[in-house]
Amino acid sequence: MSEEIIQIETPFQFNEDNKREFDELIGRYPVKEAAMLPTLHLAQRQEGYITPAVMKYVAELLELSVMKVKDVVTFYPMFFEEPVGKYVIRICHTLPCALRDCKVVLDHLKEKLGTDVASETNLAKGTTEDGKFTLMKVECLASCDVAPVIMVNDDLYKNLTPEKVDELLDNL
Amino acid sequence: MVQERRILYEHLDVPDINTFEVFRQHDGYTRFEKAIAEYQPEELAQMVWDAGLKGRGGAGFSTGEKWSFVPRDIEPRYLCCNADESEPGTFSNRYVLEKNPHLLIEGILICCYAMGIETTYIYIRGEFTLGKKMLDAAIKEAYEQGYLGENVRGTGLNINIYSHPGAGAYICGEETGLIESLEGKRGQPRNKPPFPAVQGVFMKPTVVQNVETLCNLPFIVGNGVEWYTQMGPTYGDARFDPPKPDPNTGTKLYCISGDVNEPGVYELELGLTCTELIEVAGGLRGEEVKAVIPGGSSAPILTHYELDTRLDFTSLTLAKSMLGSGGIIVMNETRNIVDCLLNIMKFYAHESCGQCTPCRWGTPWVRDIVQRIADGEGRQTTVTRPKFGITESGRWGDTGETEEIYEDLDLLENVANNIANVDTMTWNTICVFGIAVSWPAVSYMRKFRPEFEAAIRESKLVTLSVAEATVPPEENYAYQQRIIPKEMADLE
Ligand SMILES: Cc1cc2nc3c(=O)[nH]c(=O)nc-3n(C[C@H](O)[C@H](O)[C@H](O)COP(=O)(O)O)c2cc1C
Ligand code: SF4
Ligand code: FES
User: Fold this and answer.
1) Ligand 3 neighbourhood includes A140 CB (under 6 angstroms)
2) Right CATH number for A87-171 from 3.40.50.800, 1.10.3720.10, 3.40.30.10, 3.40.190.290?
3) What is the pTM of this model?
4) What is the pLDDT of residues B201-237, one digit of tens each?
5) Which ipTM value was assigned to this complex?
6) For residue B352, which atom of ligand 2 is closest to its CA?
7) How far apart are CA A104 and CA B290, in angstroms?
8) Ligand 3 within 6 A of A150 CB?
């Protein structure tokens, strides 16, 4: 992707706090490119997802081509290229959680939210119409002892049952 | 019953152990101070080798030996702490990061001093938001207290630690994938050699070490090599004369999950058996153990007949499996092995980084075959070509017997073995992710063949959550008794 063909409506810029954090970050590495992942995390936290404008901005900050940034963004599942809900619900469905009936929790979530599960290329599929929730399946969250687990944005919820899911969603 | 031996986890549940002050009250940083006061860097590296510490992240490679490959005349050198914990079934690093991050920092300080390293990056899994928060707070405190930064505690050492978040890719746990990712690229593993010890991050010599491995260092320094080597068995490698000592020393943070009553992390001396560990974890949830995955989902499966296998590096290697990350997943008699394999293969198909053709294409192919079998659409042919032998009439001729050929099982083994051959242990891929795919695929299929055959024959539909077993246990047992050698060589 060359820079000309990207349609950029409104340019993106870090807010004060993030700019300060970025300035601190960049000093940690002998090459600027290495600050890529933390920088993208900062940008995603501010903007909600990685827009073309974000990629262009990050490319300028790190003195790289936009293509290189795009290359990285597409590789990592945690970076979104589409808008997601206010609450991103990640449900683990790897073996230890499957042995503890994560399927029941997943089915319950699907029914309760009235949405399907997002796929990496189609986040809208798992996003509720009001834009409040996005439901996605993820691999082992390193909490198999308290399976089944979900993460809602940054927080982990353990030993889930349909009742606990109800309670949790009602409190959001 | 085997007793827990809490060393790394000893103070884990002390309130506020994550703060410098409380950590300090529990011997915090005294081991680092001892290291500086009493030992030269080279002596420390030798101590770690003598202690027999093996990497806890997956490969189980001797830490001291790895350090000896690092050229000490090339500057700068780096330490990358692998906190990407994403092997299914593993969750011990998370607790260290969330509850006792200063212990990790102390381990890192010792490693940095021993190896003359000034910069450490802790590559921490993107999903570990709480872990990263606690770790960052601890790093900040350590800077404030003068244990990090320039001229650490007046010793003239400069040591910096930075945490670096990942972004959800499993392959970034592989050491060269981690390095690429740290450099701001796609986390695609590099060809080896050169090994990271010689050319790692930013093309400089790099030590990559798991969180748990580093957390062992303060105790080796604090209590001495002799104390450390008393824990866990030391075997003799009989291929050498006299037998070369093969240490499996220290404790291991065993993570046990699945069908046990009290899943969790148990710190025990290396070398207890599967049965003992299940007992420690509150016993089995169910009637009988059907299978155990001993070292994270990449490890070959152990059956009912192999529960006496000791959970240490050497014993599991001899049992053609591995201790890996120490994530033990237990399955009871009701579980369907085809479904379990399907679950794991979906994981690998999703996580292949896509660099090598055998892995990029082969892994989804294996997944599709298992999916087909699980969906009751597995391919099978009944061959009616003449089979010669003594016929009913007592003469030589076509006996009229037919032969069942399970095409999909042959295909499964063939595809898996062409990603990485589990019999010769050679792989057609850049990294050993290839082995991590074919190991479970082939071992589940070989050890539970009756169940795979039944799934194909009976077209029984199974689903995402682990379904019921398709054959009665006896059918598997009868088969396993034939294929699994009864007695493992006695080691000690
Ligand atoms: C596919 C794959 C995934 C891995 N994931 C991890 C991981 O999540 N954490 C880890 O510490 N080591 C992981 N490893 C092992 C590392 O490559 C490396 O051996 C280890 O970090 C070295 O540290 P140690 O010697 O202290 O164990 C993985 C290896 C492979 C092949
Ligand atoms: S084996 Fe798979 S994961 Fe490893 S480098 Fe090749 S494609 Fe990537
Ligand atoms: S399998 Fe769900 S947390 Fe590990």
Assistant:
1) yes
2) 3.40.30.10
3) 0.93
4) 999 999 999 999 999 999 999 999 999 999 999 998 8
5) 0.94
6) 3
7) 23
8) no
